[in-house]
Design brief:
Helix content: 25-40%
Largest sheet: 2 strands, parallel
Radius of gyration: 20 Å
Number of helices: 6
Distance between the termini: 75 Å
Strand content: 5-15%
Number of strands: 6
Length: 199
Amino acid sequence: QYQVKATFFVLGKEDETSKERLRMIYERGHTIGMHSYSHVYSEIYGSLEGFKADFWKAKQYLLDTIGADCRFYRFPGGSSNTATVIDIRECIEFLEEQGVEYYDWNIISGDGSSRKLPKEEIVKNCTESIQNYGTSIILLHDASSKKETVEALPEIIETILAMEDTVILPLSEDTKPVHHVVVEKEINVEASESQEETD
């Protein structure tokens, strides 16, 4: 309706209805990312081996379903989740080794909690601080129980489109990621001295 694109971080749902919806989303030009295959925290975060196994299953699921190699990931609960037994930085390093970028969020709709928020509160949560960031990544959920999110979406889109110098884009390789957990890397600096001849 509004000709805008979004990013869908999806699970490995094997029923044909879900697969058909996923293909439709992809064919309409939205970005697809992995949100794990199972979303079962004990399986994903119980060990690094479990995380890797779930990752490969999710990646293969998307390859089989939409025919695309996925390069985007969102951790269930975000990279700052408190459910993980393993050090999340090990998972981040593994994703980097696979050429996969992970994305957290800097704006949260609030629709992920068990408490149902009214439409107006979801709209406010999604729009009131957008202009505080160069790039805003909004967390929304599309589960069947999130009717208020669906009701809020038109007003969220209209409000954002009415802002100056603001566009709605799906994630791409050019999107600056939002990370809740920063992995420090060793930086090797080789200094070369330039010698000037003096008289």
